[in-house]
Amino acid sequence: MSSTPHDPFYSSPFGPFYRRHTPYMVQPEYRIYEMNKRLQSRTEDSDNLWWDAFATEFFEDDATLTLSFCLEDGPKRYTIGRTLIPRYFSTVFEGGVTDLYYILKHSKESYHNSSITVDCDQCAMVTQHGKPMFTKVCTEGRLTLEFTFDDLMRIKTWHFTIRQYRELVPRSILAMHAQDPQVLDQLSKNITRMGLTNFTLNYLRLCVILEPMQELMSRHKTYNLSPRDCLKTCLFQKWQRMVAPPAEPARQPTTKRRKRKNSTSSTSNSGAGNTANSTGSKKKAPAANLSLSSQVPGLGAIPNCSLNPGRDGDLCHSTAVTPSGQFKEKH
Length: 331
Hints:
By secondary structure, the protein is α+β, with helices and mostly antiparallel strands. The protein is about 35% helix and about 25% strand. α2 (about 50-60) crosses α3 (about 85-95). The radius of gyration is 31 Å and the shape is elongated.
């Protein structure tokens, strides 16, 4: 039986020196301090398993990470899920960063039934760059965190709003190249955009495409279906949820006192009832043969986008649903 983080003998993948003991309740701000220490223990050999273990220790399974900032072409807002969070932190170091840590000043904590919210209006993300030149970048903004109120106290939502950033170059480097105009011109240029490297920005743009495809990827990995079949199945299930009527609340049966009738009236009533039932069944019979597409207009076809172009070069075509529940493609 495999050990879990709840096991007191659980061995962390970071090594014996970072083995966690029995979970204990700590202050939420101290969890950021622990995360900074874990990031400092990163090495050049840290692979995807290391980053996934890092995200598992500090983020919930359904956690989301949001970054908001303003570039030259307007405001940006990126939100990624738990499966994409490990890769986000690794791209920071792939862009030339050698050290990363967060500083929280004058943070406010609010306790709820199942969560703890930390709101820090003076948060600084400090990154130390070794290439293309030795530079220290201080990215300032507002950090809002939501922790689960349990022993592990992992992050459920992370929202960092960037306001400004500063790139600091040591005076010693400027003095060394004081007589070289080309080097001074290179030192005067920014190496980040709003404190983020190009590796991180490109990954966030890619996440705009990857995040909606998580359901398709998960279905493909679970059921080993082709990409086209995964897309058809997801669309058909969403269409079923749209067509399905809302569940009605259960009604309690009402008990009525039965009145005793004579045999003559009961015989006549039974004959009239049979006639009414036969008439009602004849009236209901045509409605049972109606398909869903005829009852609900506009649901006869489900739009289906494919990565392969159709006959006319379009990427989108429609998939019709037959009364038997099968798909029929229309180009």
